[in-house]
Amino acid sequence: MRRSSFYLLLIGLIFALPFVPALIASFGGVWRFPTIIPDGINLRAWESVFSPSSRTLSAIFLSLWIAFCVTVINLMVGIPAAYALTRKKLRFQSGIEAVLLAPIFVPALAAVMGIHLTFLRLGLTETVIGVILVHLAPSMPYVIRAAMISFQTMNEEAEDAAKMLGATKSQRFYHVILPHLIPGLTAGVVLSMLISLSQYSVTLLIGAGQVITLPILFVPFLNGGDPAIGSAYTLVFSAVALALVLLLDGGLRSYYATRKGGCHEWI
Amino acid sequence: MKKKWMLASSMLLLVLGACSNEQAAPVADFSQQWSELTEAAQGTTVNLYMWGGSDSINSYFDEWVTPRLEEQYDISLNRVPVNDTQEILTQLLDEKTAGKETGSIDIMWINGENFRNAKDNDLLNQPFADKLPNVADLVDQQAPQIAEDFGIPVDNLQAPWGTAQFVMTYNSEDVTDVPTSFEQLAQWVQDNPGQFTYPALPDFTGGAFVRHALEEIVGTEQFTSDEPLERDEFDKMMQPVWEYLNAIEPYLWRAGDTYPESLARLDQLYTNGEVAYTMAYDPIKAAAEVQNGRFPDSTRTFIFDGGTLSNTHYLAIPFNAENPLGAAVVINELLSVEAQAAKLDPANWGDLPVLDFSKLSDEQQQVFTAIDLGEASLSIEELESKRIAEIPSIYVEWIEEGWLENVAQN
């Protein structure tokens, strides 16, 4: 027990360590050798990040909203796709799978360069819907993959047994399939949210500067030689991402807590 | 079931497609009476796309320019932060290809290579700059560094907005004998190994440093003449510059094994005290960095005896701007004495004005001379007296390629 908490602490430290220089830099501190305490601490960067004209808060909400919509669509498309790919005998099975998972290997920007022209003709540029649609490409493969693995590890007989006992199609989905999918899907959901949150180039191209997400605001600072503001934004971004992961993790735990002894036990 | 979905989704696409059949933007008439033009622009929104990586530039707009435009012209300015201007040119190029006639960009901040690309691809609106009262009255439009942008005739397709000039930045505690020529610099570097370096090309400021070496070692008369050079001629002329840079390489930071990959990285090295020099294509940046505590108080700047390169940055209106008249009003206001003076103030931004001082009244000049540029900055007079124009941007590219081949890979 003691040993494991030591390792937990160690892992925690390794995780937190990279944020220390960012935290110092965000307070404008200059850490010159050999001083121990950085000098020139000030709140300039944080004031600028949260000043009303910086639009940081609205960008956070818009980023989260886009990530949420992207994830909902991913689930709606990804679960049936994964079901079909694992349970049905499809023609061109591996071909379809390859196409669905291809965005993992093709850089999103390369694909979006072509999509941009089409979206321009359809009037989808400069809109949130357009941005949501392009975020699907890089994130959907992870949701499909997560759902596929869950389906593969699930005993098909459990579904048949429920069927024999008279469960309808939707009852089977909610009480037999979904409980088994949840842990894997949570991983897919987290990835999908995080991937959407961190998109820069494709958001800029399709949003054309009219859809201001968090990366649109902070990427210019990272390359612009203002490390204080870049660091402050990095921390804000990490905090949003971390809060999201913790929230989903907490949700998963409470789901299991209320379902203790539920039907997933015998699967 | 499947068919229904197909039908529904194709219907959706049709509806979305129908929405996008926008009306063509009206052709902007910049030659109408200025008072009528400002009236027409009242109550409109102007989208300004510009690099968003500097807190001071951003707040100059958010806290000074935007409220003023609102108050004086009833125009609301929407500043869109951009990481790299090339990205918005890609956007415009695609919009042109797709036939999108009302775009989201009303004003963009460009110069140099980006201007050349925009001009070559017809991404700009009709000529407008000379129609702006403040350009006509306060700017010397014939000055070579204003009429030509890195060797490309501006043709009023963009309005001059600010001036950049290269300066060397140094820590006066480490450097007592300031090397104001490349000959002296080579000597200094040999005497103080590891204290100097420059950003690896294609970093823009690193490239400017190399162009100064070219200026002093070879001279730039041949580069600015009307006869464009062939590539192999050019490469031959660059040889002495590569020799110089290779000769000082062993005495650079980390013995020249590696170069800082960007100016931001070099600034970081300077901030940490690892090197004694940095550089900037912005003569007041050093003072601003001292003020915000990043650079040490002993930071000073100097320019080379032969002068330093200077270029103008401009504001342009894209071909499909939705509000070109509003854009013209905003650009004109950005060229007013008040706006240019506020822009010069290091407390706001610290960007050199583009106005011709001989066209200003004594009172107007006073507004500029009263501004404290900070101890690290040189005076505007000194900077102005030692300005040299940039060479054509095609050579800038060739120098970047040549450096990688002849210096980095050596």
Structure description:
The complex is a heterodimer of chains A (267) and B (410). Chain A is mostly helical. Helices cover 74% and strands 0% of the residues of chain A. Chain A is built from twelve helices and no strands. In chain A, α6 packs across α7, α7 (128-153) packs across α9 and α8 packs antiparallel against α9. The longest helix of chain A is centred in the N-terminal third of the chain and has 32 residues, at 56-87. Chain A is globular. Residues 261-267 of chain A have low confidence and may be disordered. Chain B folds into two domains: 29-162 and 313-377, D-Maltodextrin-Binding Protein, domain 2, CATH 3.40.190; 167-310 and 388-408, Periplasmic binding protein-like II (D-Maltodextrin-Binding Protein, domain 2, 3-Layer(aba) Sandwich), CATH 3.40.190. Helix content of chain B is 46%, strand content 13%. In chain B, α3 (55-73) links the parallel β1 (45-51) and β2 (76-82). In chain B, α2 packs across α14 (324-334), α9 (204-217) packs across α11 and α11 packs across α18. The longest helix of chain B is centred in the N-terminal third of the chain and has 19 residues, at 55-73.
In short:
With 267 residues, chain A is mainly α. Helix content of chain A is 74%, strand content 0%.
What gross morphology of chain A would you assign?
globular
| Average pLDDT rating of chain B | 88
**Roughly how many Å apart are the termini of chain A?**
30 Å
Strand proportion of chain B:
5-15%
Oligomer: heterodimer
Tell me what portion of residues of chain A adopts beta-strand conformation.
under 5%
> Could you say what the CATH architecture of the largest domain in chain A is?
Orthogonal Bundle
- The assigned structural class of chain A equals mainly alpha
CATH superfamily of the largest domain in chain A: MetI-like
What structural class do you assign from the helix and strand content of chain B?
A: alpha/beta
Q: How many whole angstroms does the radius of gyration of chain A measure?
A: 22 Å
Q: Using the coordinates shown, work out and report the CATH topology of the largest domain in chain A.
A: MetI-like fold
